[in-house]
Design a protein that fits this description.
With 305 residues, the chain is α/β, with parallel strands linked by helices. The chain has 2 domains: 174 residues, Rossmann fold, CATH 3.40.50; 120 residues, Response regulator (Rossmann fold). It has 10 helices and 10 strands. The strands form 2 sheets. The chain has a 5-stranded parallel beta sheet with strand order 2-1-3-4-5. α1 crosses α3, α4 packs parallel to α5 and α6 crosses α7. The longest helix has 23 residues.
């Protein structure tokens, strides 16, 4: 998550600098023209940030915001620019993301946007962003349909569901060896896309699959857990709300069910999802373990804890 957000902000920062360079270039005295370098140094602009700063996914949204803030400050220091970050809280809700997007595209100082975080949000704002010619880069939206040309100003720095889904499914097959499993979507684009990508792998491996569907707003999973049979050794939760998975795990324990939870990258929230023995996938290794990223990790820790 951390490395991807820095990449996303770096990409948007490049868009903003490019916008400043083109708009600030002017004829100099004596018939000459100012250089791109001079234009960049005088760049005063804004970049929008769309993410779940409050609400049930706030821990991840806050992390995204912090890394966006860090990247902007680093870019300004390196390029002598004066780019500011305008925050927009989406709470991972398409309607809220649409409201934030309308505010951003009507703000002439905002040249590009980081986010939004969820695939369902990108689907909601892709049209308005394209019509406004607003470039936006996400560090976490993975639905396949987002990069099929429907949203021409959208970019991402993560792999799509058709990559993550089979990778996760094959890991489950080869490592956990389930004979029967439950996979539960939460009725949002991120979740349903991953279920569609993972299920064929399970079926090809001869695993009995129980596909269930619940609302992302559900907070008690007792009735769903009751459907977990003694043969079901794995429950796959391609969800975005880590607190929901935590409650699902509690409900499993309350009903003395022994199935192991496997969550996709949306559940990577160590302070929220803490069910012992569970698995959570990720797009790549933690940057704190990568030597080349040590300076970045140290800067983030020093600034945000």
């Amino acid at each position: 998550m951390k490395g991807r957000l820095v990449l996303a902000v770096a990409a948007v920062g490049s868009l903003a600098v490019a916008g400043c360079s083109s708009s600030n270039s002017s004829s100099a005295a004596g018939g000459g023209t100012s250089t791109a370098s001079a234009a960049t140094k005088s760049c005063v602009a804004s970049v929008g940030f769309e993410g779940p700063i409050t609400g049930p996914v706030a821990p991840l949204g806050t992390e995204q915001l912090h890394f966006a803030q860090l990247a902007v400050s680093m870019d300004n220091a390196a390029n002598k620019t004066k780019i500011s970050l305008v925050q927009g809280d989406t709470q991972l809700q398409p309607a809220q993301a649409t409201t934030v997007t309308q505010q951003f595209i009507s703000n002439s100082s905002i040249l590009a946007v980081v986010g939004p975080a969820g695939s369902q949000e990108v689907i909601a704002v892709g049209g308005p962003m394209a019509r406004a010619g607003m470039g936006f880069v996400t560090g976490s939206a993975t639905a396949v349909e987002l990069t099929t040309g429907k949203y021409p100003t959208f970019f991402r720095v993560v792999s799509k569901d058709s990559v993550q889904g089979p990778q996760d499914a094959n890991y489950i097959v080869k490592t956990l060896h389930p004979k029967a499993l439950m996979i539960v979507d939460d009725q949002e684009a991120y979740s349903t896309g991953l279920v569609s990508a993972m299920t064929p792998v399970f079926q090809a491996a001869g695993i009995k699959v129980d596909h269930e569907s619940v609302s992302q707003k559900l907070t008690d999973f007792s009735s769903l857990v009751a459907k977990v049979t003694s043969d079901t050794s794995v429950v796959v939760l391609p969800w975005q709300v880590a607190a929901n998975a935590q409650q699902f795990g509690r409900n499993l324990a309350q009903q003395h069910k022994k199935a192991v939870i496997f969550g996709t990258d949306g559940l990577f929230s160590p302070g929220t999802f803490t069910i012992n023995g569970s698995y959570v996938s990720s797009f790549g290794p933690d940057i704190t373990a990568i030597a080349a990223d040590s300076a970045l990790a140290q800067a983030a820790k020093a600034k945000f804890g």
